[in-house]
Amino acid sequence: MTIVSQFMTRGVRTLAPSDTVMMAAQAMEHLDVGAIPVCDGDKLVGMVTDRDIVLRAVARSLDGSTKLSEVMSREVHCATEGQSVEQVLAAMAQAQIRRMPVVDDKRKLVGIVSLGDIAAKDSADKAGVAQSLGDISAQTAPDRKA
User: Fold this and answer.
1) Whole-number Å distance between alpha carbons of 43 and 62
2) What is the CATH number of domain 4-137?
3) Could you tell me which residue ranges the CBS domain spans (predicted)?
4) Phi, psi values for residue 48, rounded to 5°
5) How many whole angstroms separate alpha carbon 81 and alpha carbon 88?
6) Do 130 and 93 form a contact (C-beta atoms < 8 A)?
7) Residue 100 gets which letter from DSSP?
8) I want to staple 111 with a disulfide (CB 3.0 to 4.6 A). Which of 31, 54, 80, 102 is the partner?
9) Are the C-beta atoms of residues 79 and 3 closer than 8 Å to each other?
10) What ranges do the domains of the chain cover?
11) Calpha distance 48→72 (Å, rounded)
């Protein structure tokens, strides 16, 4: 069984809920990523994505000093190090996400795994990755919640 710890990235850059949207955008630019975990100490409390910044800050005319706690996604789908890659791919497909934080049993962030990580390193599961990407990319009705 192939497990998540074989594919995940460790030593992930994180931000705090009190950090700003500007800090998040600058970190994303510097790291060339579209999502950063938000932690209170070492406990995962959310994720902030480039999409969160655009839709929850820019579209609402909030400025760069807006705290991440105001725009981050709080309900975060997570994996654990011992989960199988197949389980994580299925969870990503179900939630339509391309990356997932990896946490321990106390919700301490230990890494992050992306669909790209699995695709690049797991030549045996190309069909599973392709299926997950198709499911993740399937169009859904827009969420128009205010």
Assistant:
1) 27
2) 3.10.580.10
3) 8-64, 72-128
4) -120, 130
5) 10
6) no
7) E
8) 102
9) no
10) 4-137
11) 5
Longest CA–CA separation in the chain, Å: 48
The position carrying tokens 């993740």 is 136
17, 40 contact by CB (below 8 A)? yes
Q: For residue 108, give the amino acid letter.
A: K
Residue type, 10: R
Q: Which residues does 99 contact at the CB level (< 8 Å), separation at least 6?
A: 35, 112, 113, 114, 115
Helix (H/G/I), strand (E/B), else coil: 81: coil
Task: Tell me, rounded to whole angstroms, the distance of Cα 14 from its chain centroid.
Answer: 11
pTM of the model: 0.81
Distance of CA 94 to the CA centre of its chain: 14
89-140, pLDDT tens digit by residue? Answer: 999 989 989 899 999 988 999 999 998 888 877 555 555 554 544 554 555 5
Proportion of the chain above pLDDT 90, given as a percent: 68
Roughly what angle, to the nearest 10 degrees, separates helices 126-137 and 85-95?
Answer: 20
